[in-house]
Amino acid sequence: MRLRVVLGLCAMLGLGIWAAPAAADPTSGPPICSSAGTALSGNYHRNLTLTGNNYVAGDTVLTFRGNLTIAPGACLDAFSTGTVNVAGNLRVGKNAILGLGCAPGVDFLPVPCGSTTTDDTIGGNLLANDPYTMYLTADTINGNLVSYGGGPGAVFSPYVNFPIKDSTIHGNAVIDGWNGTWFGFLGNVVNGNVIVTNIVAADPDSNEVVTNTIRGNLICQGNSPAVQVGDSGGSPNKVNGNKIGQCEAPGL
Q1: Residue 166: partners with Cβ closer than 8 Å, 6 or more residues away
Q2: pLDDT of residue 11
């Protein structure tokens, strides 16, 4: 299972909210964004849009009482031991990057998770339209996770991952049409259906969909390579509904 940091670029735009400027995140290594940008923390009581590069440092708390939008080309690096809570929906725009959450076992990424599992929450839906990528770890999404399109293309350079790991999704999870280097949906609990379709990845070990607990159906179609166990060492998915398409393969 290959989870390497994204090497793409985020556009350098002005911030849509006030925050204290900072040159680098002192609690982690190289940023997921093209630069560390601006440190965010505290409480925001309205709908907000982030532009430019932003990060949440370890052991800080960032709370949005309304909806949060990551603007096209913007980046939020909350792949740290900090905590992010979004009361409403979280939207990710075209070519934007979201890193959210931390858990043991990802220490080889530029994030010192150590023994910490974070508790980032989204009260509504996580909706992404043509994102560059997202890194989602140990998150709780009370609505649906829906991601359509995006990615740099099915290339090795830049090497861009799209991992969704160890998260709880109370609605449905739909990932359709992303093109990059590696995608994985691993160790998640989903109360609805999981639909993984039309993902085209350069890495032959990509499209690992294993060790999930799914109370609805698991539908996998049009993915290249076909959905697989790969080198994840994962166990078959526990599915209360039906396994359909590529997800009917042995080991899944």
Answers
A1: 103, 117, 137, 138, 186, 187, 188
A2: 30
Quote the tokens at residue 85: 């809570």
Q: Which residues of the chain have pLDDT under 70?
A: 1-31, 106-112
Residues 6 or more apart whose CB falls under 8 angstroms from that of 16 comprise 48, 49, 50, 51, 71
d(CA 68, CA 129): 14
Residue 134's Cα: distance from chain center in Å? 3
* Cα–Cα dist 102/84, whole Å: 11
pTM over 0.70: yes
The 10 Å Cβ neighbour count of residue 43 is 10
- Whole-number percent of the chain with pLDDT over 90: 75
A 10 A CB-CB count for 133 gives 28
**Cα–Cα dist 193/105, whole Å:** 27
